[in-house]
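User: quick one - fold this with adenosine-5'-triphosphate bound?
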Amino acid sequence: MNIISVKNAVYVYNSGLEDEVMALRGVSFDVEQGEFISLIGSNGSGKSTLARLLNGLYLPDEGEVIVNGKSTLTAKHKDMFDIRRTVGVVFQNPDNQMVASIIEDDVAFGPENLGLPSAEIKERVEWALDRVGMSEYRKGTPFRLSGGQKQRIAIAGVLALMPRVMILDESTAMLDPRGRKEVMDTVRRIREKEGMTVIMITHFPDEAALADRVIALSEGRVVIDADAHRALSDVETLRQYGLDAPLCTRVAYELRKRGVELDGNIITDRELREKLCRSK
Ligand SMILES: Nc1ncnc2c1ncn2[C@@H]1O[C@H](COP(=O)(O)OP(=O)(O)OP(=O)(O)O)[C@@H](O)[C@H]1O
Ligand SMILES: [Mg+2]
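Assistant: Sure. Structure tokens for the protein plus adenosine-5'-triphosphate:
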């Protein structure tokens, strides 16, 4: 069964007003449990709006979003609660996501709101902090952490809700390269260990290349939905939508233009190295 199904979803801000914006113009796709998808698209293409539709924070003006078999449009209180628990979102700025002055209290905030028994909350907090590699900091304050560490705590806070789907909305955008790597390694580890479905919104093509499938939005529409190798190696199509391919892909593209024989779709540095060693 699809964990998420989006059918012709339309979303309009300030409907009927002078400053009306049609942020999503009929978006459709399905997500299977366990998939790792990167969602890309230039500024204002509708990615964050879509993330909010996927966890029921916004409701579509037309079409439908179905999470775990339930439509967000018709979900009553209990079903909406279930939808919010199924799809957890980590946002861009970790500072806006911190609510408590002690790290373990911060991570416990979500499970406490679910009304779970305290023994289970404790267990979940320990598990979530372990998964993001931050157990040793649990008694400390989040304010002194680096950006990457703060974002890992924010991820732990969402993990502690045990969502089946985790959406990361540009969760590495404000971090330096080291912080970005920390967060990406954390996401990779969680995926491997928990088989969680991940939808990662990113501006960085080399991050998008870590996913199995790429969905690209342009002006509120899905313009690419394909396996990551196919989507990200198509330099010209990406360019048409104002997007960059990963650096190694662009290098391969330029080398091919100059007559170097490189076969297959190259989207990681390792693939480029291997193909270069074998090329004539
Ligand atoms: N609260 C809002 N009120 C009015 N318009 C909005 C609001 N939020 C977003 N928009 C508009 O909706 C469109 C889609 O915005 P959205 O934030 O979903 O794009 P995005 O792909 O996440 O962009 P970015 O890459 O900059 O994060 C844009 O035109 C944006 O200006
Ligand atoms: Mg956004």
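One thing worth noting: Strands lie at 2-13, 21-32, 36-40, 62-67, 70-71, 87-90, 165-169, 197-201, 213-218, 221-227.
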